[in-house]
Design a protein that fits this description.
Blueprint lengths: L10 H22 L3 H4 L11 H21 L3 H24 L10 H21 L7 H11 L6
């Protein structure tokens, strides 16, 4: 598949991007409605802000990321921003583990620990599905030149 910028992307990358976009949009809607209280369990207790405000703001961000992923526009930039978002919210997952907060069926330390291990996979998913891994920085551009691809800049 070729985008309007001329950057090539595989069907599997596109499908992964669309799936992650749908997941993010649904998660964002959940933040704003039916899972709002459960998401508050992931807001670190040491964070000096209103938990509900954090959940609402992160829900709005997740909807925006989801729609951006679904649109396919500015894939690389969206992928980098979404990966940074996943890194930024990781302390909330750690807090849920450390404070033993149950939510989303994560009702044991083992389940909460396993959840922590999935965060790097989400980062990788965002980067890979948008092609951001292929074209970040000088190494990405050099690798693209060796393969004969155009960087996604």
């Amino acid at each position: 598949m070729t985008t309007s910028a001329g950057a090539s992307t595989s069907a599997s990358r596109s499908a992964a991007r669309v799936l992650l976009g749908a997941f993010m949009t649904l998660a964002g809607v959940g933040h704003l409605s039916f899972q709002r209280q459960a998401f508050q369990a992931q807001v670190p207790t040491w964070l000096p802000v209103n938990k509900d405000a954090v959940v609402l703001a992160s829900g709005a961000a997740e909807i925006a990321f989801g729609l951006a992923m679904l649109s396919g526009a500015r894939r690389r930039q969206v992928g980098l921003a979404l990966a940074a978002f996943f890194v930024a919210i990781f302390p909330g997952n750690v807090s849920q583990y450390v404070s033993r907060q149950s939510a989303f069926g994560l009702d044991t330390d083992r389940k909460r620990l396993v959840r922590l291990l999935f965060q790097p996979l989400l980062v990788a998913w965002a980067l890979w599905s948008t092609g951001a891994l292929r074209s970040t920085g000088a190494l990405g551009r050099a690798g693209a030149r060796r393969r004969g691809d155009r960087p996604l800049d």
